[in-house]
Amino acid sequence: ICTYGFLAKNDLKKANIELNEEIIKILNPLSEDYTIMRTSTIPSMMQALAFNNSKKNKDVQLFDISKTYKNKNQAIENVEIPNEETILTIGIYGKNADFYILKGIVENVLELSGVSRYDIRREEKNPTFHPGKTANVNIGTDIIATLGEIHPIVLENYDISQKVVIAEINIDKIVKYAKNTKKYVELPKFPAVTRDIAIIVDED
Q1: For the segment 98-156, what is each residue's pLDDT rounded down to a tens digit?
Q2: What DSSP element (H or E) covers 7?
Q3: Which regions of 110-178 does DSSP assign to beta strands (E)?
Q4: Residue 97, class by beta-carbon neighbours within 10 Å (0-12 exposed, 13-18 middle, 19+ buried)?
Q5: pTM for the whole thing?
Q6: Neighbours of 7 (CB within 10 A)
Q7: What string of DSSP letters covers 97-113?
Q8: Is residue 147 classed exposed, middle or buried when 0-12, 13-18 and 19+ CB atoms within 10 A define those classes?
Q9: DSSP code of residue 78
Q10: pLDDT tens across 19-72, in order?
């Protein structure tokens, strides 16, 4: 899916995401629905899942690669700039909305990206997720992904009556920790022939 980097404050509240000093307000918003820059991609994913659910689409699996924006008081030439991070978001409801299926997808992403050493730790303090069905993927103290089942209150806010699982994977941090150990071998100039053809011809 493709999502906007703008949100309304109410979108964060619906996803149980705290309104704090990291939020960047837009001086000239297009409308009341786009007054702040998002600090999380979960509201955008929940909107997409809720739309599909309202259209009676079953067994939905979506992904989005987009940015979050947080105010870190950084400046270039006296101009304040936000801290931008690229996030891969995966959202599922239906028959594959299972924590362990989502965990397997996240682990495949990490493996294919060259990240092999990490810890998966239980997360109980993120109010967007179910406290007993959520985990962080850590490298040391650095959280590179969060995955789990969305909290029932958040589901109710989006009028979804079935289980939803979501993962947020920080692509920038994956790039930071990835180890490229793949070796490439030149293709053979004369590849082997694996097909045997028998032909009957006249003696002449």
Answers
A1: 999 999 999 999 999 999 899 999 999 999 999 889 999 999 999 999 999 999 999 99
A2: strand 6-7
A3: 119-122, 129-139, 142-150, 164-170
A4: buried
A5: 0.83
A6: 25
A7: --HHHHHHHHHHHHHHT
A8: buried
A9: T
A10: 888 888 888 888 888 899 999 999 999 999 999 999 999 999 999 999 999 987
The identity of residue 179, as a single letter, is: K
Side chain identity, residue 76: I
CA–CA separation, 107 and 104 (whole Å): 5
Distance (Å, whole) CA 120 – CA 139 = 9
168, β-bridge pairs = 89, 146
Distance CA 53, CA 161 (A): 9
- How many angstroms separate the Cα of 159 from the Cα of each of 12, 50, 147? 16, 7, 21
User: Is 31 strand, coil or helix?
Assistant: coil
- Alpha-carbon distance 20 to 22, whole Å? 5
Q: What is the number of alpha carbons within 13 Å of residue 42 lying toward its C-beta?
A: 29
Which of these ranges, 78-82, 140-144, 162-166, 192-196, has the smallest mean pLDDT?
78-82
Distances (CA, A) of 134 to 88, 102, 126, 168, 192: 17, 11, 8, 12, 50
The CA-CA-CA angle for residues 3, 126, 175, to 5°, reads 55
